[in-house]
Amino acid sequence: MRALTFILILAGLNLLVWIARGEEYEAPQPGSYVLPVIKSAADGALLDPDGKPVSLGELTRGRITVLSFIYTRCKSAQACPHATGVLMDLHELSAEDAGLAKSLRLVSMSFDPGHDTPERMRAYSAIAAERGSAAPWHFLTAPSEATLQPILAAYGQAVDRKKNPADPTGPLNHTLRVYLIDRAGKIRNIYSSGTLDLRLVLADVRTLLLEANPSHS
Fold this sequence. Notes:
The chain is an alpha+beta fold. Helices cover 34% and strands 19% of the residues.
């Protein structure tokens, strides 16, 4: 519950920062640029919040997907909570935009399966529970470290344990990575802590929508 409260507070702070930085940053006009294909999004065997097997490949195709690697114990403001806050903002926006809700998918995948069990991810998913008209938001974990590691390697997501497991920002070192994946399962952008901005992600999503439907440009 404390983790969810922290994320909700941070999401509010993200919005304030977005407003405050409005004069400093202007997102590119959707459709005015091209997002090159980086590589194919990797598959992997995961678990949903009910403990049922799910294929990551099935959740990175058919819709435009924003995939975030997280762990729920992370308290570093510019890491997992920031990523989850941006996905939450996208989720809220999609609840008010039927076209976005129909075309977008959000995925939060934990790289801490020993702690982030399906039950834990179910509790974490409460942040998305009250927006039924929004884009689907999937909360996933791995059944084991052995299953997890090939997925992390394929996406280039670095994770290791801190020397101090009681570190107040959480026990894991990791880089922030959020992936934009097109309907064909191709990664089209990778956001870091320095580039993960709601306005840019939304412009990129709309650029991919226009790419698929050029008559709407």
